[in-house]
Amino acid sequence: MKDKFSTYWLALGVVIVMTLWLATGNVQQLKAEAPESEAKSAEEGVMRVAFRYGVSESVLRQLPIQGQLEAWREVEIAARVNGVVERLPVSKGQRVEEGQPLVFLSEEDRPSQVRKAEAEVVLAESQLKAAKSLAQRNLAADTDLKAKEAALAQAQAELAKLKQALNDTVIKAPFAGVVETLPVEIGQTVQPGTPIISIVDDSRLKMVGQVPQQQVSALRIGQRVTARLLSGQQLEGELTFISARADVSTRSYRIEAALDNPDRLRLAGATATLAIELGEVIAHGISPALLSLDRQGRLSVEHVGEDDRVVQTPVERVRITPDAIWVTGLPEQVRIITMGRGFVVPGTKVEAVEETSLTAGDGNNG
């Protein structure tokens, strides 16, 4: 047992002596080797990043707004006269033209009333003509002449009212569109005010959205707009309305845009992104994956400066296309870091290598 303890303490002593020797070695030798070691470490510590040259271009600046599509026009037609539904020549979902008959109500005795009123108008005209002849010969008083004129006017008004009532038994489309609702059936009795049918005009669409108060000053009636649907389809149009005051709760302004719908797509009620054109600006088109947030939470892009140090520059989004996002704020010509961004911070000295010169195994992914 004693021999084992002696061996243990002997080994421990050797380790302690070696440690002290390494820690307190030749100081002059360390001083001589230090600069060379530091230089080698600095050389090995420079991170390599890949970059892509970016050159600014003139593009249309766009303000993106989330909104909802609505029908350009929609009307619910109600009965104007009493009657029974006799014919329904259209059905829900059917496309109709302006002036096309949609619903036929019973005429009742309206045609005979119109004929009676027409006869009364003819009689009133004859009586007025006779009164005028007598008045010219001073055989009739002026009051009699005025009475005959009033009688004719009353007969004409009654005829017009009866004709309108007869016309109202046939409900026609006020504009071209699609039958949206048809809540009546043949044989149903309706009263004035009873909903009969509704028509939606899908020749155009209306886009409704809200614009923040800090951006509304850049908008003008008539500006060109593009609506991008969730399906990827696009509709062109123009800005038609800007609210004169902000919403009290959101401090945003309601806007409306008229969109062409040549294919008569049934999109009312769908959501879409509206891009409002604000004029041309100088911008860079980059991949959205190259965007990051700086310490202030602003959209930024990392690039290599002239001194080969990493620079993080805040940018502003001005346009989005299927292939790129366009931003302003970068120098006209810039080396945008595409690989290695995750391993460097602003101010870091880097070895910048053009992206196209790298092989599959080079660089650091960032």
Q: How would you name the CATH homologous superfamily of the largest domain?
A: RNA polymerase II/Efflux pump adaptor protein, barrel-sandwich hybrid domain
| Secondary structure tally: strands | 20
Averaging pLDDT over every residue, what do you get? 85
* CATH structural class of the largest domain: Mainly Beta
Residue runs with pLDDT of under 50 for 5 or more positions: 1-42, 360-366
CATH architecture title of the largest domain: Beta Barrel
Topology order in helix (H) and strand (E) letters? HHEEEEEHHEEEEEEEEEEEEEEE
Number of helices: 4
Strand portion, in percent?
35-45%
Cα separation of the termini: 61 Å
**Count of the separate structural domains:** 3
Mind summarizing the main beta sheet? 6 strands, mixed
